[in-house]
Amino acid sequence: MTVPAATARDRLRPALWAVLAVGAAVAATALAGATAALPFGVVVTRAGADVAGVACVGLALVAVLLPGPTSATRREIARTVTTVDRSLLVLAGGWVVLVLLGVTFRAADAFGRPLAQLGGGEVLAWATRLAAGRGLVLTAGCAVVVLVCALVRLRDPDRIAARFPLVAALLGVLTPTITGHAGSAPNHQVAVVSAALHAGSAALWVGGLAGLLVLVAAHRPLLDATIGRFSQLAGVCVVTVALTGLLGVQVRLASWAALLGTGYGLLVVAKTVALLALAGLGALARRRLAAGRTPVLRWAGIEVALMAVTLGLAAALSQAAP
Amino acid sequence: MSTHHPRRPALRAVVLFLICGFALLAGTGVASAHTRLLGSDPADGTSLDTGPARVSLEFNETMQAGFSTITVVGPDGTQYQTGDVTADGGTVSVAVSPLGAAGAYEIGYRVISEDGHPVTGSVVFTLSTDGPAAAAPTPSATGPTPAAAPVAAAPAAPADEGGMPVWPWVVGAVVLIGGGIGAALRLGRS
Hints:
The structure holds two protein chains of two kinds. By secondary structure, chain A is mainly alpha-helical. Chain A is built from eleven helices and no strands. By secondary structure, chain B is of the alpha+beta class. The two termini of chain B are 38 Å apart. The model of chain B is unreliable at 1-7, 20-32 and 138-160 (pLDDT under 50). Classes of the chains: A mainly alpha, B alpha+beta. Chain A: Residues 225-317 form the Copper resistance protein D domain.
């Protein structure tokens, strides 16, 4: 049994989250002192690509978490799998497009040229000869893999296991962090590994919760079968996100004073507050769930909204100089 | 699944706290992640009797010639850099034609760091006696780049023009992907 009543509002919810994430990124960039149009183009495409990537990770995770079909849930599971693959197709396509636009904007920014005068040679040079460019090209490649997986799975879900698009999406989310600021940091290995872990766990946590909420929450037996495993995974992810975030800040920030004195520092503070709030909400939700009380779902929506804002802040942070 | 570990969150919090503290204590020196200027020749603030044949800038990262621009701007706004920028390891340099009147010369740079962001800045040196090009009343007669009114120290765009604008290609790719997905969804439904 599905619940057709609240579907219109439910369908709007993911769009609202995406808008929140991009809005937060734009606001943070404005607060950090940007005025020209180009930095906003850069940050909007980056935040949008991150949202698409995280959504891909979450959807694929939902498909992986789904239990084996029983006679009672067979139809519902098949329906959910189809929805996952259709959404994956759209989101992976959006992801590719946003990364493409992002490369263009960032090349224009790097060469200090207006978009209309940006040449193909410059975009190519930026995308292939710099670590950051290569990272984004890899991301686009991963997104294409997700897209192809979704396409094949739409024809025949058994042809490709759900874990393949999950791994591809995760790799796509990781690569820009590896080749971004961290790649050129002096404390190279620590910075790279921690940034990769940070992005990966955040994507699994945020995307997974959002995916469960949108696709599975309305169907109680499926939710019961998936939420336990997800909750465990989320716990590990929260700890990883906190630890690696702290490590990253420690590597990059010059002093404790910079935490409050610079735009970058303020972004760090904002993200920390959001993370603490999220972890608190998550712990509360888990306790309620363990006690068998259900109004967890309403909070989970708020939690994802907060996560979306955090994601936007992260995107802005990734484009800001420390 | 297993919910028989009621104490695990608390334990986790303690471990987290300990590791965070350790990470803070064990941290090594702090450094910026971005490309930054280590030094230059001539160095910032130096005073020279004769103009240099080349100026070079040293960065903390490996530099690529195609991504770097250097300008040398004289007191009257004339640009004196000439030829292509060359890169060797972390050092980029450009040849300088004979300088003009005594005064402050600004070496402006715009490089692109490995993380794809532009890094700009400038270094100033002072020429204490008039250079060979000072006698010429109009700098355009001897100046290497008689560009129309070089504005202050704004570094020029990189020399290699990209050729045809790229945006029609980007728009085309976007339309192609969007159309393909739309078609796939429609076919998948039937």
